[in-house]
């Protein structure tokens, strides 16, 4: 089995190194091939997603991704900026289902800005559609405003859209995920304002007929943002579109106060996937050896479970991560008095040892 | 001066009554005229925004609005649903600037789900553009998908758009508001993905040239959602589009844990405005006399300040609200041990007395 390893920029390489360490001690003969992406892709080949990198990702059974972005690329034209690599990979590999768990380990409850009783033991799964919506809809651009009171002026515009089949397939992913958990699914929409999301809601209701054992409810996105702050533990699985999912999954991640712990998976229809930590490239701490590698290690665990058919390894890695937390080991981002402060590489070694 | 009073549905009438009480003791001869809106408009005239109601709102110097919506109208066709009245009023009255303060009174810090040190003394102002964006953009609807892998299927679609003049005018409102506060403005966009918001960002940077005394920074909407949870007190004024503003202003309101305290103003270019509490119609507690009227009373204060040129009355009302909190009076939504629980009408009376 072949894994494409794309470390990227900032802390990407250091954290990916730790996940690779962990993968190497599982006793499997994974073929791991590295390629540059993001700013590193631009440096190496003049493009954030070099052709060879895309080809490697397409040929591999799974992709392990670090993070991309650095201030020094902020002045490049948009098509050359690091984050375009993420969008390009999602679209080219058809990674339409983004799974973003927001889990708060009881040991880390103090790290949250929310009161412990509101978030301790939080375990929600946000499923974000990842290849449709206003992210990719055409037409888009800057044009002359065609009508209304601003007619003749320049205007920026984009197209939000979801086709029936796009909604159906993410609905199935969501209902099936809910079925494996507490059997409660919240579909987040803005059906009171947007045609796209009235349509989304109608299809969700239709697909629900095939999953009578799952309870479905609908919530407007503004209310969902409020309920995540008010009582996040009430949610089990949430499903929403690309744009709303971008906002809500980040908000949910931040509720835990330990975004350095949160993995993510982006899957296609055949469970091929790209796995990456939920946090960014943190250029301010890059190269200092203090980044938290656990989100990336847990992303590798998701990869073993969803794309490589090795759920037992995934379970072992997740248990090992829990063990190092119980041992009191903490990178600076999650450090608390009474714990032992460790660096990126020491944390990786500790997980290997706990395995 | 003429004030249109639109109580609406659910708790709307009870809370508006208290604000009217307060307005009556100021010693001004406001002409107050009532009209039905939302579900009440539908009952009275078959439409959530009856023509006579719209005309009254257009003729008045300001509009005091309660809340709209009730489960019993959920099955109506979208154009007849209560919330269409809000959208109709915004669009017809050109209320493009929505001011949503998120303030946490120190007395109420315990009501928040966030740790007191994270939110106590919170005082941010979110300025949401209210008549543009994907809320009103055309074309929109359900059509046959014209291209791509889902060609021929049905798809829901909407148009996001902002014209230059629309962005400029909300930018001016935001810079001027920041100038009266801590002189820091955060423009929230998604310029890394959306053409509309790259354009938005470019115009913000251009308008900034006229306000060199205000510090402007730019933040992606997903990051803004995170920072509101992580360190909300770092913000002073935030400005964003209609859709992002809908989500972020509600999230920010919920940070305080006391959404029953938060007023809002929606202004046109001449400071005519519609004023309403940030919370909804709460049909579950309607008629019970327990709803918190303070958000509506504070909305009336904003009305006096922005639309009626009576800032001194606004100051007095705000001081009176602080006084009743200091006295320990609390409606059930903000009740804590050691305080005195009061109902809607008692709370209104207490504010009148404190004046
Ligand atoms: C970098 C950006 C294009 C991306 C997105 O908006 O999807 C990021 O925020 C994410 O959530 O992975
Ligand atoms: C009721 C709805 C149309 C409205 C909106 O989305 O603007 C509401 O959520 C608000 O924020 O006032």
TrEMBL record, chains A, B:
The family database entries (SMART domains) matched by this protein are listed as: Iso_dh (SM01329)
Alphabetized GO MF terms: 3-isopropylmalate dehydrogenase activity
What's the EC number here? Answer: 1.1.1.85
What does the UniProt entry say about where the protein is found? Answer: Cytoplasm
- What does the record give as cofactor? Mg(2+); Mn(2+)
Keyword Amino-acid biosynthesis recorded: yes
Sites binding NAD(+) sit at 280-292
Q: Return the cofactor note field.
A: Binds 1 Mg(2+) or Mn(2+) ion per subunit.
The record's principal subcellular location, in a coarse class, is cytoplasm
Pathways per UniProt:
Amino-acid biosynthesis; L-leucine biosynthesis; L-leucine from 3-methyl-2-oxobutanoate: step 3/4
- State one Pfam family annotation: Iso_dh
Residues binding substrate, per UniProt: 90, 100, 128, 222
Q: What residues does Mg(2+) bind to?
A: 222, 246, 250
Q: What class of enzyme is it?
A: oxidoreductase
Residues carrying the site annotation Important for catalysis: 135, 190
Span of the secretion signal?
Answer: none
Report the transmembrane regions from the record: none
Question: Superkingdom, according to UniProt?
Answer: Bacteria
What function does this protein fulfil? Answer: Catalyzes the oxidation of 3-carboxy-2-hydroxy-4-methylpentanoate (3-isopropylmalate) to 3-carboxy-4-methyl-2-oxopentanoate. The product decarboxylates to 4-methyl-2 oxopentanoate.
State the oligomer form and interacting partners. Homodimer.
- The protein in question is named 3-isopropylmalate dehydrogenase
Q: Which organism is it from?
A: Undibacterium amnicola
What gene is behind this protein? leuB
């Amino acid at each position: 089995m072949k894994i494409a390893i794309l470390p990227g920029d900032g802390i990407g390489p250091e954290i990916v190194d730790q996940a690779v360490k962990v993968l190497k001690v599982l006793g499997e003969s994974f073929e791991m091939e590295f390629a540059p992406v993001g700013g590193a892709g631009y440096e190496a080949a003049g493009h954030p997603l070099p052709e060879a990198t895309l080809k490697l990702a397409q040929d591999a059974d799974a992709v392990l991704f670090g993070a991309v972005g650095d201030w020094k690329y902020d002045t490049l034209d948009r098509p050359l900026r690091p984050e375009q690599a993420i969008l390009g990979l999602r679209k080219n590999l058809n990674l339409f289902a983004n799974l973003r768990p927001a889990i708060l380990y009881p040991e880390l409850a103090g790290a949250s800005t929310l009161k412990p009783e509101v978030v301790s033991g939080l375990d929600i799964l946000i499923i974000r559609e990842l290849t449709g919506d206003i992210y990719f809809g055409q037409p888009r651009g800057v044009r002359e405003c065609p009508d209304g009171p601003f007619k003749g002026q320049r205007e920026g515009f984009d197209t939000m859209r979801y086709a029936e089949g796009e909604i159906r397939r993410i609905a199935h992913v969501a209902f099936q995920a809910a079925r494996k958990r507490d059997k409660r699914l919240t579909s987040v929409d803005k059906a009171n304002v947007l045609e796209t999301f009235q349509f989304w809601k109608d299809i969700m209701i239709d697909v629900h007929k095939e999953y009578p054992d799952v309870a479905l409810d609908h919530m407007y996105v503004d209310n969902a943002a409020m309920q995540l702050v008010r009582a996040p533990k009430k949610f089990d699985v949430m499903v929403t579109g690309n744009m709303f999912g971008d906002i809500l999954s980040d908000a949910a991640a931040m509720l835990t106060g330990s975004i350095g712990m949160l993995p993510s998976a982006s899957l296609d229809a055949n469970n091929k996937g790209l796995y990456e930590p939920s946090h960014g490239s943190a250029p301010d701490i890059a190269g200092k050896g203090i980044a938290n590698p656990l989100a990336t290690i847990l992303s590798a665990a998701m990869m073993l479970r969803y794309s490589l058919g090795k759920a037992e390894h995934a379970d072992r890695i997740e248990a090992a991560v829990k063990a190092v937390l119980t041992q009191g080991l903490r990178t600076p981002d999650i450090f608390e008095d009474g714990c032992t402060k460790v660096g990126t590489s020491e944390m990786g070694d500790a997980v290997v040892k706990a395995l």
